Amino acid sequence: MSEESRSYLIPKVWHSYIKRHSFKLAIAFSFMLLEGAAMYVFVRTLKPMFDNVFIAGQTSQLGSISLTVFAVFLVRSIGSFIYRSLTVKTGVNVVGHIQRDLTRHLLTLDMAFFNRHSPGELIERVRGDTQALQGFASTTLLSVGRDTATLIGMLASALQDDWMWTLIVFIGAPLLVLPISLLQKLIRKQTRRARETSASLSTRLDEIFHGIKAIKLNNLAQHENDRFNLGVRTFVRTALKSEYGKAAMPSIIDLIAGIGFVAVIFYGGQEIISGEKTAGTFISFFFAIALIFDPIRRLTSVSGSIQGALINLERIYFLFDQKPAARPSATAHGLTQPLGDIEFRGVNFSYGPVPVLRELSFVAAGGKTTAFVGASGAGKSTLFNLLTHIELPDSGTISIGGQNIDSLEVHNLRHSIAVVSQESALFDESLHDNIKLGDVVTDDRRIEQAAVDALVSEFAAELPFGLQSLAGPRGSNLSGGQRQRVIIARALLRDAPILLLDEATAALDNQTEIQIQTLLDEFTRDKTTLVIAHRLTTVMNADLIHVMKDGQIVESGSHTELLAKGAHYSALHRTLATD
After folding, report:
1. Looking at the whole model, is its pTM more than 0.85?
2. 552 and 516 in one domain?
3. Mapping DSSP to helix (H, G, I), strand (E, B) and coil, where does residue 279 land?
4. What digits encode the pLDDT tens for the residues 394-435?
5. Domain that holds residue 366
6. Which residue in 35, 219, 254, 260 could disulfide with 169, CB within 3.0 to 4.6 Å?
7. Dist CA 96 CA 108 (whole Å)
8. What's the chain's average pLDDT?
């Protein structure tokens, strides 16, 4: 993104998230101005303090000056607490709002997007980039308001003391333009690299912790540690370059300030010696200029922080700008015949340039069980992704009961389908909530019955809190077979008219598989069921079996019919484990 287009991000985030907090920010800014005014009063008090009290010895003014100084710092302390609290509160609320909106938006995107972007990268953008914005909002913006108010007050005081002295101090200011411009470019470049490297590190950690078993079994601990350390070293180098750039800005300010101060001492010192100016005037001016350069140093650092914040905003709005794949406009709310035939007609689908399904056509009879078998990569699981609209076909139509699923609201389509997949999608919640899965409105008795039917209660009874025991992240507290039973219980509870079983019993031991298979045979009796399996014992009783190869159906029939043909299915029967 160009610098010009990036500049539009600030008004964009202002209108979307910050503008609603304008009242709180206005109050905060008012107290910042009050602090600037208080410091102005303090500096103006220095001249009479030195000229009238310390040099002339007028003790009568000592009390009033002391009270004025105390009042200044009292006002500063109260004002500082109020504007800091309001600014931090606004920053936290804005960042929380962005995180909520960004997560909501990401959940609307299609699987192609998630295939392109790793979980670690997305986590870093949703959490890391937005948290960086919170730091910017709670410190940098606070500094802008406070230091600008102080800068205005001190500049006014310095001009009151002597406008020529003020001009001399700032005579070297034009020399700042080129180095600060170069530093800003360096900061932008290195901040972007640092955020990208941080996202890469998050991805690496995600892979390490989710693949920890494979890492240990293959003695890859040192290998993964070395890879991560290499990433950390890269991140440290890029982050330090950005921080060095930020640190250089106030240093340049100090150098120019030093030149200005020396010039004023030579010029102003002669006026004081000659009696044209008093020592109190010089001290008041000196304090004002010293307090001017402190905010200027921080404000130039703010410039670097703004560059970093723009990079964070750029990465965040990149996600907001992503759009889900165009879907046909829905014309119906739900299925008119949930138990109607499921028909694929001339369906083609590719993952990028790789074709997966080629002119696929078949009919799965409503209320019957249709099975799909074949080697890995034949396109079996893709059928389920297309039927549930996780993916969209390149061409062809898919219908249920003669109703094109493109005409349905996706939510209502998926509400009519229950899926038991080989990917055990469990969350770090209780077994009870994993079975219920959030949005299913049902009573606990049905959940408990589903747990009993799917044999979840068998192992749950041995856990400390029964069905209220936590499954762990991705079900890590459970064995593979236990996770699969929870998924099956979820499908039983959902009781949808269409059931998709993708290796539903693959993770179960033989005895449990027989029990679950008996239950599923009973459960699927009045449902349209599609089954994917490698173990042919799972599909032997299916009403119709399709053999898939290279994205096409090459053979269909019952188990007995297909064996009699002595072709593809028969070959699978000989080579696959059939128990």
Report:
1. no
2. yes
3. helix
4. 999 999 998 999 888 888 888 889 888 877 678 888 899 888
5. 342-575
6. 260
7. 19
8. 82
